[in-house]
Amino acid sequence: MLRVIDTETCGLQGGIVEVASVDVIDGQIVNPMSDLVCPDRPISRQAMAIHRITEAMVADKPPIEQAIGRYQGSRYYVAHNASFDRRMLPEMQGEWICTMTLSRALWPGLKYGNQALRESLRLDVTPPAGLHAHRALYDCYVTAALLIRIMETSGWDALQMARRMQGAGSSDSFPFGKYRGQKIADVAKRDPGYLQWMLKNIPDLKADLRSAMLRHLAD
Fold this sequence. Notes:
This protein is of the alpha/beta class and about 220 residues long.
């Protein structure tokens, strides 16, 4: 069993407002779960414009510490741009698999956003009615369909995919933000001010990402 998980947040620095998951078992998408969550900070306007989750929708919801229990217990967690969701959910102790990383390996030259891959690979998936892209459960269904296609195309099982994650950190490309998926070296040449802004304003950057940004700014 692989548990596909997704979070929606107050912004790039965190504050979970929604968590959801589905399980992939024998090539089938099963066991959908989702919870709105009362965050520990205000929801930014930019984030609200993307997921459309308002302060009123989460005001009476439990905090993530109360909601997260039923999502735990999987050996493998799968996410699209897994470095972000793994940072949001440090309590998840399983191995993490990133469908974005695997998609880059299998299909070079595509756009690697979840919806872009859904269209270019013509994924057969029907998310729950009443939701839209960038709601956590909707995105879980798309990521699960992408995971199934990855496994069908590559022949990789869960252990093989997890092994491919070893050493596949965020030190070469941006895992989030407006340049998500682009090479840090390229952005450092085109827009060094953006790297400097991130280094100054995002204190919880992963150590390997921070190191790579500093290295490329110095080149």
